[in-house]
């Protein structure tokens, strides 16, 4: 309860802070204003909000300040809590969700009316499966069997996994993760994707150990997973995600069309060199420098 | 004062004990501590290895226990147990204490009566797995490495250790230590012996030098072979021997001087003694001559006068008898009778005096007769003591001086027998040895005797001795209290 209260207080504080941001509106009540919504008041969230604000102010700064309160609002939701909060509001507004995984995004938007959902988009937190598969190709430099475990919450990702190149194992409620891992034990690579049903803190270490014993490399979905024992992953840091958000917002302002939810456009790569050596995976600079950087930023 | 047993030890033995006793104590203490230390080390190492092994196995067993894949774990544990002889048994039990794996060693001989247990905890790595109720999902790297926490107990690893293998190893190490320490002890002993000898040899030499000095050989030759206190002792002994030699030489010189003085004094004394004896002899001769002269005077003059006076008195008495008796005549008769008697008494006294002054019998009968007469007289006049005379040899040729000295000596001796001895039997022997040219006189009695060592000599004995010495003779007193006295005298005939 205390945690929720602190979260709400933080949210309100950031909402108030966002309203004092000098959003400029046009004289004929055209244009947009934006508001960054956060779900907590941690240092990470503050860093995200500050960086994002710096990137969005130039985009929205072309609108004059008169009648600003009447312009439609563009909410930038940072994290799942903020997204859930903003999604629950009844407003004529556009929501750009960031720092939320595709699974959570789907869970939150699934219950919303279709019209409401159309005014929302997201930059998913996890890497694009296609980028991850390209990373696998760069790592192994030969065709390898890639497996992925999906539950009912992430079955929607099946289309994004290239049919035939990824062996998808389903994980149902009550299943033993060890058995599922044994089923995919013949694969050289396990592609992990955010799914709290499959990957949670209780079994994550077990999964890493099990795959390691099966001589499998785990392609994680965050840099921290790589540090914890996964082989490698593409990841998007705050700059990457915020740049992508700014791109989407600018496109929306420019065209009036909201881009569909998508995986991060910009990313870098992290490799656990120790795990790679242990799995006898040769890592070269091609792998280490694999990524896509926003314009103006050197990889 | 009773000495302790070690106080009679030689300095070498003491040095050996002084040097070796601490080493022996150190050796014993070191070996005792080493043995204790090895035992403790085995116990500590076993405990540490057991704990580490249990902990390590618990860390690595998590996945196998959770996943139920115990075959790999059994292989791992079996490999451990068979490769390490210090492990007796390893058991893996689940959270309900049900044994999942139990592997016992084939080689370990015995087991400790305890086991080392480590819990198998389920570890959770705390990373952002993009749950729907957390903070922002950031795939980028966070500032810190994801932490890992133990959450749930899934079982235990129990390791039972076997001490025999490690004890054997430690026993071998102890044996090596013991051998090295014993070698060190032996080396210490040899060094102690050498060092002790480096001290005892100069000390023994010093003691030998001191013995020589004690024996009177002051001029000893003691080489200074070492430094320190012993060297100083050697130097001191050498200096002392030189000083003692010098002192002795000085003393000998002084003694020689004193001896020379004493010899001179002795010679002087002897000369004085000889002179004294000559003087005594002369005096005795003079006395005897004077006595003889007085005796003759008394005999020829006084006694003749006394005879004349007696004759005159008898004549008065005779004349008075021719007169008629009256009181005056009676008085005259009476007086003449008294005078006759007085003259007879005086004559008798004169005779006695003459006999005492000059034993005329000596002139008439010689020494043998005079002594015989004297013995007879003593025997007759003193019936409480029996006097016996015995003689051998011809005494007629003896000189007058020798005869009268011998007579006087016998006279003095018999006088002493009567005055002091209280004897009942006395014998006088006279033996003349012509071969030796000696006159032997022996007077023995059965009287009270005296201690020759303590009793002081009376005038009579001194006189006897002086008479003997004056004649160049010898006198010997043999007596003990209550056992009589024997006086042996030897007088040279030639000197007389």
Oligomer: heterodimer
Largest sheet of chain B: 5 strands, mixed
Strand order of the largest sheet of chain B: 5-6-7-9-8
Q: Residue-averaged pLDDT of chain A, rounded? A: 85
Helix tally of chain A? Answer: 12
Query: How far apart are the first and last residues' alpha carbons of chain A, in Å?
Result: 43 Å
Fraction of residues in helix of chain B:
55-70%
Q: Within the CATH hierarchy, at the fold level, what is the topology of the largest domain in chain A?
A: Rossmann fold
Mean pLDDT of chain B: 85
Q: By helix and strand content of chain B, what is the structural category?
A: alpha+beta
With strands numbered from the N-terminus, the spatial order across the biggest sheet of chain A is: 1-2-3-4
Strand content of chain B: 15-25%
Architecture of the largest domain in chain A, according to CATH? 3-Layer(aba) Sandwich
Number of domains of chain A: 2
Quick one: overall form of chain B? Answer: rod-shaped
Radius of gyration of chain B: 64 Å
Shape descriptor of chain A? globular
Poorly predicted tracts of residues of chain B: none
Individual helix count of chain B: 8
Q: Could you give the count of β-strands of chain A? A: 10
The residue fraction in helices of chain A comes out at 40-55%
């Amino acid at each position: 309860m205390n945690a929720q209260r602190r979260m709400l207080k933080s949210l309100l504080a950031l909402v108030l802070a966002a309203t004092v941001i000098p959003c400029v509106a046009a004289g004929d009540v055209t244009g947009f204003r934006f508001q960054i919504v956060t779900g907590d008041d941690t240092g990470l969230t503050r860093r995200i909000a500050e960086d994002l604000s710096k990137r969005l102010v130039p985009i929205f700064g072309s609108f004059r300040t008169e009648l600003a309160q009447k312009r439609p609002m563009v909410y930038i939701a940072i994290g799942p809590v903020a997204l859930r909060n903003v999604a629950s509001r009844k407003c004529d507004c556009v929501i750009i969700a960031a720092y939320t995984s595709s699974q959570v995004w789907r869970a939150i938007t699934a219950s919303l009316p279709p019209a409401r959902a159309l005014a929302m988009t997201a930059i998913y937190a996890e890497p694009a499966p296609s980028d991850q598969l390209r990373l696998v190709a760069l790592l192994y430099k030969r065709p390898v069997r890639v497996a992925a475990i999906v539950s009912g919450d992430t079955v929607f990702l099946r289309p994004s996994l290239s049919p035939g190149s990824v062996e998808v194992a389903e994980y149902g409620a009550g299943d033993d993760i060890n058995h599922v891992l044994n089923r995919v034990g013949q694969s050289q690579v396990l592609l992990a994707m955010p799914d709290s049903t499959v990957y949670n803190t209780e079994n994550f270490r077990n999964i890493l150990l099990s795959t390691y014993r099966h001589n499998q490399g785990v392609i994680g979905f965050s840099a921290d997973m790589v540090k914890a024992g996964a082989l490698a992953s593409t990841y998007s840091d705050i700059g990457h995600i915020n740049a992508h958000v700014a791109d989407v917002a600018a496109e929306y302002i420019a065209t009036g069309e909201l881009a569909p939810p998508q995986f991060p456009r910009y990313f870098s790569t992290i490799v656990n060199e120790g795990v790679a050596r242990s799995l006898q995976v040769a890592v070269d600079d091609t792998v280490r420098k694999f990524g896509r950087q926003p314009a103006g930023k050197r990889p | 004062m009773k000495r302790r047993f070690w106080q009679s030890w030689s300095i070498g033995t003491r040095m050996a004990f002084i040097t070796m006793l601490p080493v022996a104590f150190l050796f014993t203490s070191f070996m005792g501590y080493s043995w204790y230390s090895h035992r403790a080390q085995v116990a500590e190492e076993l405990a540490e290895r057991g704990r580490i092994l249990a902990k390590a196995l618990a860390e690595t067993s998590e996945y196998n226990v959770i996943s139920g894949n115990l075959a790999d774990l059994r292989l791992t544990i079996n490999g451990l147990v068979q490769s390490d002889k210090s492990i007796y048994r390893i058991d893996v039990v689940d959270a309900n204490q049900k044994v999942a794996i139990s592997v016992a060693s084939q080689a370990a001989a015995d087991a400790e009566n305890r086991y080392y247990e480590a819990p198998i905890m389920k570890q959770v790595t705390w990373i952002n797995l993009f749950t729907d109720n957390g903070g922002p999902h950031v795939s980028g790297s966070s500032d810190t490495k994801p932490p890992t926490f133990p959450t749930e107990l899934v079982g235990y690893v129990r390791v039972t250790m076997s001490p025999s293998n490690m004890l054997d190893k430690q026993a071998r190490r102890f044996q090596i230590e013991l051998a090295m320490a014993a070698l060190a002890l032996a080396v210490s002993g040899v060094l102690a012996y050498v060092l002790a000898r480096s001290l005892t040899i100069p000390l023994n030499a010093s003691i030998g030098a001191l013995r020589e000095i004690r024996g009177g050989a002051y001029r000893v030759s003691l080489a200074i072979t070492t430094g320190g206190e012993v060297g100083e002792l050697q130097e001191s002994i050498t200096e002392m021997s030189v000083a003692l030699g010098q002192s002795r030489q000085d003393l000998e010189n002084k003694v020689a001087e004193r001896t020379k003085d004493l010899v001179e004094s002795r010679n002087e004394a002897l000369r004085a003694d000889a002179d004294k004896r000559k003087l005594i002899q002369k005096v005795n001769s003079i006395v005897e001559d004077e006595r003889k002269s007085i005796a003759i005077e008394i005999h020829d003059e006084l006694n003749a006068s006394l005879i004349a006076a007696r004759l005159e008195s008898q004549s008065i008495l005779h004349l008075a008898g021719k007169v008629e008796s009256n009181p005056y005549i009676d008085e005259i008769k009476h007086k003449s009778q008294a005078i006759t008697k007085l003259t007879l008494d005086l004559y008798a006294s004169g005779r006695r005096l003459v006999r005492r002054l000059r034993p005329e019998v000596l002139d008439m009968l010689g020494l043998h007769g005079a002594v015989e007469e004297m013995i007879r007289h003593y025997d007759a006049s003193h019936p409480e003591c029996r006097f016996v005379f015995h003689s051998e040899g011809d005494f007629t040729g003896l000189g007058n001086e020798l005869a009268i000295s011998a007579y006087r000596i016998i006279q003095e001796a018999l006088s002493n027998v009567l005055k002091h001895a209280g004897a009942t039997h006395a014998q006088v022997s006279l033996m003349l040895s012509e071969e030796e040219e000696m006159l032997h006189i022996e007077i023995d009695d059965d009287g009270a005797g005296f201690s020759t060592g303590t009793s002081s000599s009376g005038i009579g004995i001194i006189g006897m001795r002086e008479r003997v010495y004056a004649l160049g003779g010898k006198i010997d007193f043999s007596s003990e209290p209550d056992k009589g006295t024997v006086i042996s005298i030897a007088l040279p005939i030639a000197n007389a």
